[in-house]
Amino acid sequence: MTIQQGQQPLSRRQMIQGGAVAAAAFAAPAIVRAEEVHQWKMVTTWPKNFPALGTGANFLASIIEEMSGGRLKIKVFGDKELVGAFEVFDTVSRGTAQIGHGAAYYWKGKQQAAQLFSAIPFGLNPQEMNSWLYYGGGLQLWTKLYEPFGLIPVPIGNTGVQMGGWFNREIKSVEDLKGLKMRIPGLGGEVLKRAGGTPVSLPGGEIYTALQSGAIDATEWIGPYNDQAFGIYKAAKFYYYPGWHEPGTTLEGIINKKAYEALPKDLQAIVWNACKAANLEMLSELTAKNNDALESLINQHKVQLRRFPDDVLRHLRKMSDEILAEMAAADPVFKEILDSLYKFRKQVSAWHAVSEQMVLESRGL
Ligand code: CA
User: Fold this and answer.
1) Which CATH number belongs to the domain containing residue 280 in this structure?
2) Residue 130 needs a FRET pair 20 to 30 A away by CA distance; which of 143, 164, 214, 277 works?
3) Does residue 277 lie in a domain region?
């Protein structure tokens, strides 16, 4: 074991924060903590190095290693490198990997309410999601939900407002949703089903082939930057907005609780704050790159941009409200979280009606 004197000021500072024990801290001999290197594995639901999401996971691992001076090293695995995308939750819960990165709506089979922490149809935008999670009680509810699985959830990234998706035919009325076979996971999929369509759940890597072969008629994925990277525009012509089903999807970090608690306090703080930094990093990167990609999709690739008609959006909104109310009636945990989210949405809508919304509108005058 290596002895490192450089550790000493930190333990002293921590004890000072402890208040009552401060005096003891100064009386203690100038010791020294063994330099232990922690090795973690991060499993992700993304293909390796996937733009902004996979690279966001890499970014998180690299800043943790840098901030910890190499005391916490994290090896990142893409989809199928260690486990498949849909096995991430169990893998981290078991402790085979110590941290995972994905989206909470993949885990509705574990807990229906998990999907409330990625996005709800017609729900919160990215900044509102962050505010609800950090300051509106959302993260406490999420932590409580994952406790039985030995997992600590943490927001790590947000996709930004998503696009409505790619369609091989136009959607002109509610009738056009009937019989539509679309890749759309989570609650959005439930809404489509009620509107008469057939939702399909596919990991990102399988979307393009499914759309091109005609196995599906439509797909949503993320936004212009990621959609362009997958080449989806080559398989379907009409690109719809808005992403009513995912108005600001939070990406999820899950940390194995035992592994986290085994870290010294300073490394715990590094992990926690690095996740916050990565949260900001991913949203910022995607916002900038979506701008460029939208322009190139329209101008270079001649994509047909379409807005969902109002009556289609109204119908989808009605179906969403119904489904969420039914799910809440059947599951008290779901209800508790949904109530908190709705309360926050109501408040923040009133605030954003006179702030964000008015700025955007006045810019277009
Ligand atoms: Ca999506």
Assistant:
1) 3.40.190.170
2) 164
3) yes
Residue 242 within a domain: no
Report CA(97)–ligand 1 centroid distance (Å).
25
> Which residues line ion ligand 1, judged by CB < 5 Å?
162, 220, 246
The CA 232 to ligand 1 mean position distance, Å, reads: 13
Cβ contact 144:133 at 8 Å? no
d(Cα 57, Cα 76) in Å, to the nearest integer? 7
List Cα–Cα distances, 154 to 131, 149, 158, 267, in angstroms: 13, 14, 12, 16
CA of 221 to the centre of ligand 1 (A): 4
Cα 336 to ligand 1 centroid, rounded to whole Å = 25
Distance 103 CA to ligand 1 centre (A): 10
Instruction: Please calculate the CA angle 292-126-351 and round it to the nearest 5 degrees.
Output: 120
Q: How far does residue 2's CA lie from ligand 1's centre (Å)? A: 47
Q: Which structure tokens are listed for 274?
A: 């690095």
| Per-residue pLDDT tens listing for the chain (365 residues) | 333 333 333 444 444 444 444 444 455 555 545 679 999 999 999 989 988 999 999 999 999 999 999 999 999 999 999 999 999 999 999 999 999 999 998 998 999 999 999 999 999 999 999 999 999 999 999 999 999 999 999 999 999 999 999 999 999 999 999 999 999 988 999 999 999 999 998 877 789 999 999 999 999 999 999 999 889 999 999 999 999 999 999 999 999 999 999 999 999 999 999 999 999 999 999 999 999 999 999 999 999 999 999 999 999 999 999 999 999 999 999 999 999 999 999 999 999 999 999 999 999 99
Length of the chain measured in residues: 365
Cα 346 to ligand 1 centroid, rounded to whole Å:
24
| Predicted TM-score (pTM) above 0.90 | no
Distance 189 CA to ligand 1 centre (A): 10
Place of tokens 């922690």: 38
Q: Is residue 283 part of a domain?
A: yes
Kindly state whether residue 6 falls inside one of the protein's structural domains. no
By residue range, what is the domain housing residue 88?
36-158+248-287
CA distance 223 to 343: 28
**What is the total count of domains within the chain?**
1
